[in-house]
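S., here's the first fold you wanted:
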Amino acid sequence: MKTNQQHGTVTPTLSRIKSQSKSSQVEYLTRLRRMEFWQLHEIVMQQIEADALTGDEHEEARGVAMLIAEVYKLAPHTPVKVAGSTVPAAMVADVYAKLTAEHVRHVLDNYHRASYYIRHTKTYLRTALYNAVFELDLQVENRARVELPGLFADGGR
């Protein structure tokens, strides 16, 4: 548990929340929804380990934290557009609860590498954050299979 010194409230750290049951996670997200936006923003900054990011990444993480906090504040059934589909805010919030500094760095790296104009930055980032949770582990495994095929029983295939 972590104490918010400004408001004197006790909030569980996100790493503890990730290991809790689904009903406990829903209860936690409900508590987040009831918080003031900037208080929630600071909790998200802790969640995504913004202090682990340096320079421009840290500043960009503030904007990312605002996007995540915005989703956390939405009512569970509010429609949110992600990857061209509309899904309930609760589903997006569940996925966002798994985000770390590594995911944010991955999203920001891809954003900066884009060789095309991103017209709807907020929508792009919302989708990229959502997808990062699913992509990052698979991308690391793929890279290891290609670069170190002898480590895998199937020869890297």
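And the second, which I think is the more interesting of the pair:
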Amino acid sequence: MYEDVRVKPRVWSNLPSTSKRLVGRRLGAFFWVSGARGFTSGLVNVLAAPSLEMLRRLESADYEGAMDVWAQVKPFEDLRARRDNANNVSAVKEAMAQLGRCTREVRPPISELPASERAEVSSILATWGLV
């Protein structure tokens, strides 16, 4: 579904300064319509294209298109948000590990994902055409 695109330093440097203002990644699209500009993205470590596409659509006031992108990444973001966001880093690390970019190890007090959630990550990556 998505091309595996990595964010390069030049991409960041070419963004308008208003795009570099950060708001919470899960609600970035929702905050945008209230005046916030930009959002953080853990997903970009796994797959940059959806985050960059969402930013492009938000900057062009294509809110319906931004929500279409959001719907495609929502299962991963929901997994990250579980246990009061305790899965945040663990899910990103697991996805990166399954793509061969790093190990799944996380520092305490964070825990690795259980096998059932690792399987969910596999399924999500398959849906995106990455595995």
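Why I say that: Residues 2-25 have pLDDT under 50 and may be disordered. The chain has one domain: 9-127.

Talk tomorrow,
H.
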